[in-house]
Amino acid sequence: MSKPLMSKATAVWLVDNTTLTFQQVADFCGMHELEVQGIADGDVATGVKGFDPVANNQLEAIEIERGQANPSYRLKLKYNAAAVGEEKRRGPRYTPLSKRQDRPAAILWLVKFHPELTDGQVGKLVGTTKPTIQSIRERSHWNIANISPIDPVALGLCRQSELDAAVQVAARRKASEGSVMSDDERRKLVSTEQSLGMAPEPKIPSSIAGLENFSLSEQEEKAADYSDADSFFNLPEADEDEDDEDSPVR
Q1: Lowest-pLDDT range, 68-82, 122-136, 210-224?
Q2: Exposed/middle/buried for residue 234 (C-beta within 10 Å: 0-12, 13-18, 19+)
Q3: Which helix (H) or strand (E) holds 36?
Q4: C-alpha count within 13 angstroms, C-beta hemisphere, residue 159
């Protein structure tokens, strides 16, 4: 394991019972140095009971002595054969209670913009079950009318790297199946980071939409000769008699 069990409680015990530096405790417990300093100041982990790593077979006492003697020494977690592989997450992703109400919106976003993802991939990304995903795909969810698609990365339900990895896996699976993808499907298989870097397609303003196909006929093009001002305004030629009548008598 990369860090001890109950790392915050372990940090509390080390701060209270040793003279290790904040950086040493932070490195051992997988925390930030400022967070350990907050524990020492009483601003962080208030009410958390210390967890002795020596008594719980996670750290040798000699490691603490070496760390106290040398501030640059990094504590080494005691090897525990029974704990090998425990850091690997098993089962569905755990979603905090405060974010569980956002899962339907994230599922709708994934099935809408990345339909190539399997139900298993969607379930791992946002921590949900296949029946819930299927009900949203089929729009039979009890609250489907009030659900708006929202990016799960923006909701904090998964990381951007995890979403991109799942999309790339779906792309490789699609290619291995040998099926022909449409242009729209191929664009969706591009990672979110790559799609955001693409140049936007030029759009015609709605006020002149449809004029891109407008053209004059060949006869109209020949007849419409606007080479000079007279032909443009189609002014009639002045009559000499009218000019004589209008001229003053001298």
Answers
A1: 210-224
A2: exposed
A3: helix 33-41
A4: 3
What is the pTM (predicted TM-score) of this model? 0.40
Residues 6+ apart with CB under 8 A from 86: 1
For residue 107, how many C-alpha atoms fall within 13 Å in the half-sphere facing its CB? 30
- CA dist 62 and 74 (Å) reads 12
Residue 86 buriedness (CB in 10 A; 0-12 / 13-18 / 19+): exposed
Domain range list for the chain? 7-83, 92-197
Instruction: Give the largest Cα separation in the chain, rounded.
Output: 130
At residue 138's C-alpha, the angle toward residues 132 and 144, to 5°, is 70
Residue 9 corresponds to which tokens in the numbers above? 């409680």
pLDDT (tens digit per residue) in 143-172:
999 999 999 988 888 888 888 888 888 888
> What residue has token string 């709605």?
206
Least confident of 10-14, 104-108, 136-140, 235-239: 235-239
DSSP state of 211: G
- Nearest-CA neighbor of 74 among 24, 18, 13, 5? 24
What gap in Å lies between CA 25 and CA 40, rounded to an integer? 11
CA–CA separation, 29 vs 216, rounded Å?
A: 76
Q: 92, 104 in Cβ contact below 8 A?
A: no
